[in-house]
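Kindly inspect what follows.
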Amino acid sequence: MLMPYSSPVTSYATPVPLVNSRLSPGGYWGTGINKTYNKRGDFYLRIDSVDSADNVKAYFEVVNGLQGKGMLGGRIETGIMKISGALTNGDGISIWGTPSGNSIKCTYTIATGNNQYQNGEFTVERR
């Protein structure tokens, strides 16, 4: 006897990691630079989920010389991850990343509250 289909999703509060051929969920660590101020830092990008429509949910953090963290969301479009959101200090951040194997090469722009912009780049690898 066939059983009626029921969704395996039991909660919508926590993103469910899905596999995407271009970007795998998990933690990515690396280094980068804020080119505006010529300062380096350690970057962490956690890809929480990538759904079948290429929507991305992620957590971003930078420490050791630079600081900032926040939850981000966006999409993969033509092979490029485009995510953005607010950092905990209220500044906005946009990240453009190109996944390749176990790494993501990214550029970013931070928009501060006084209409100034900071630019930089970082490369992170999945561990």
